[in-house]
Amino acid sequence: MRIIVTGASGFLGQAVLPLLAGHDVVATDLMLSPGVIGVPGDIADPQLQAALFADGCDAVLHLASMPGAAVAANPARGWQVNLHAAHDLAAQAARAGNRPRFVFASSIAVLGELPPDRSVDDATPLAPVSDYGALKAMAECWLARQHRTGALSVISLRLPGLVARPGAGEGFGSAFLSTMFGAIAAGRHVELPVSAAATPWLMSVRIAADNMVHALGVPDLTLPDIRALTLPALRPRMAELVAAIAAHAGTQPQVHYNRQAAVEQAFAAYPPLCSQAAIAAGFRSDETLAALVAHAMELS
After folding, report:
1. Among 5, 43, 106, 148, which one is least packed by beta carbons within 10 Å?
2. pLDDT one-digit tens code per residue, 164-197
3. Rounded distance, CA 65 to CA 52, Å?
4. Does residue 280 belong to any structural domain of this protein?
């Protein structure tokens, strides 16, 4: 199978590539990681797009994206990368293959602010409050239309917070959800911009990569008409997550909760989640909080 992978040197892309051994993979990113063979360049560049599909394709894993804080700082560039590039790549894929599978890395940001007393399920309407979430929602909608026309076989996967991103997670307002792993494991003091009772939706990058690759082979008939799935995720309270990290590392947590209402609302005020369609199609979350922490600590 010839698979185009955008964002191949990103956090998720680096976890996905090893799972594609045996396939003809065309990897791309602004800069490719050492050892990754592919076509470097700007995903919004028409010449790069044409080069990626010059020899056809059977599938696309479209992972490339600007994070939310970067989109807010440069909305015009955000439109180019997070929406226009998805539109153009879909058109290139439709011309280059015979109804190829197009897997789009979307986000729970499409859901917007959610009431804490009401569960989210497959019928929850989209109501993004950020430019980032709105662009992801528009891309989902356009890709679903391409599926209905028969040009592509589309699956959009709404990813929860992925942990643990290396470094400071520049451009991600949710970076604290990753940096806390290394800090707690090292016994350092950490200040969190949320309350102890805050509830994010989390997934390890290992499981996220498994889900992206699983999407390559999911039969169309098992998926909803909207072609978008909110993936199952763990929903720990922050105090539970802190305790699980400390238990894994054998340290005493030194955590101060300094709640910032806007940060908590955006990244850690998620209600219970029911992902029936995704689970029925074989997508999964980390089995336990301890498993998520173990997977995340591999990267911290």
Report:
1. 148
2. 877 655 556 788 998 999 999 999 999 999 999 9
3. 17
4. no
